[in-house]
Amino acid sequence: MHNIAMCYAQLEMHEEAISWFEKALKLYETEFGRDHEKTISALMHVARQYFACDMFDEAIGHYRRMLTTKEQILPDSDETVILLIFQLFPCTSKSGQNEKAMVWGRRFVAVGETSDLEKRLIVKKGMGNIHAKNKQHSEALDLYLEVLSDTKFLDQDHWLHRLHSSVVYDIHRLYAEMDGDNEAIQDLQRQREMISQVLDSDPRAGAILLHQLGHVYARQRMQHEALSLLEEALEAIQCLPPDSELISLKRNAISGIADAHLKLYNNQAALTYLRILVDSEEDAGWKAGAMIRMAGALEQGGEFEQAIELWKQVRREEERKSGVDTIDVLCTARKIGSLYLRIGNTKEALRWTEGTLAGLRRCNDPEARLQEMRTLGLMSSLHWELGDLNNALSTQRTCVTGLEVTLGESDKQTLGAYFDREICNTLGEVVFIASNSS
């Protein structure tokens, strides 16, 4: 019966295996007694098959029975006792008994060096997952980072790579959840020190974690700290043999560094990093976004003519990707028109704005009507700049009416357009009175 059960187990026909192992178990219990080694061995096989069938409560019952028998004659440091404690951890964890799982996990880890290192790392990672589910971010991070640090004592193999990837993913997920966790945020400096240790033992994992921690700082508006971490991550990435994941990570780090510089008003430094993204031949996917941020930085610095030329490049890229009369292309054209107005080139401003309006009226995109109203606001400003008060007021009235229909009377944009219209009315009356007085 035992041999038949083993065949079913090897074929992963677990329910059939359970049936035959239980028959063998009853036979051994009758012949040898409940605590005999053959009985315990059969019980171990039954428990494993229950676990394979996701019947965790049944598996727990069998493992507890075995452990109770062994504890009476053996210490926790015994190999069999250690194995049973190890098996009880995933059983209780997968059955949702997290508090009990933590008890088994702590007991297993407390055995120390006697237990197998790989199993200790698996248990620590599982305990970290339980802490993460309970929103105990600091405790979870401590365990994850311990696992990464301890992997340097393992042989380099495929299993180790999977463990690294899994723990790094867990930390990445945890960092994404940390924004509202003040206690974990306050603990960032200690986490950075631990990640620096990981960087020594596993440069790839360390670089990934430095990069992720940098973005946590950035989301907390701690730009100086974010900049330092992202620069350290970039330096570490550049020392590693490139592959598709690292190339993407490198671009992301450069982008994050540029963003930090922009928020610190270091526009020239930001432009340097954004230019790297624009000129990159490794990954062209960052080019358009980088050009848009470069144009914004130039505009912020009052370099409007350079910003205009860059926005024109952006528009050509957008046209190449999506066609002529698309929302993105037309909104970029409007942006160019508004910048021409800022430098006093009303002729070019009018040409680009009129072209935008014509394109939006041809566009079938559901957003086209709203963008048309926004463009009419710009056109009204142009008419005013050109001294055409009647057309300025008429265009602004059309803009207000369109926004009332599109967004509603109480929308912020509608109210803004309404105030602009009232300003036009007031200024028009002032000009009328002044001309009559003269």
Give a description of the structure.
There is one protein chain. This protein has 438 residues and is mainly alpha-helical. Helices cover 81% and strands 0% of the residues. The protein has helices spanning 2-10, 14-32, 37-52, 56-71, 79-94, 98-110, 117-133, 137-150, 158-177, 182-186, 188-201, 203-219, 223-238, 244-263, 267-279, 287-300, 304-322, 327-342, 346-362, 368-385, 389-406, 412-437. Helix 2 packs antiparallel against helix 3 (37-52), helix 5 (79-94) runs antiparallel to helix 6 and helix 12 (203-219) runs parallel beside helix 14. The chain is elongated and about 105 Å long. Keywords: Repeat, TPR repeat. This is TPR-like protein. InterPro entries: TPR-like_helical_dom_sf, TPR_rpt.
Q: Helical region count?
A: 22
Oligomer state of the chains in this structure: single chain
Question: Which class do the helix and strand fractions yield?
Answer: mainly alpha
Helix proportion range:
over 70%
Shape assignment? elongated
Euclidean distance between termini CA atoms: 116 Å
Number-wise, the strands total: 0
Strand percent estimate: under 5%
Outline the biggest β-sheet. Answer: none
| Low-pLDDT windows of residues | 430-434
**SSE pattern:** HHHHHHHHHHHHHHHHHHHHHH
Rg, please?
34 Å
Average pLDDT confidence is: 79
Pfam families: TPR_12 (PF13424)
Protein name: TPR-like protein
Keywords: Repeat, TPR repeat
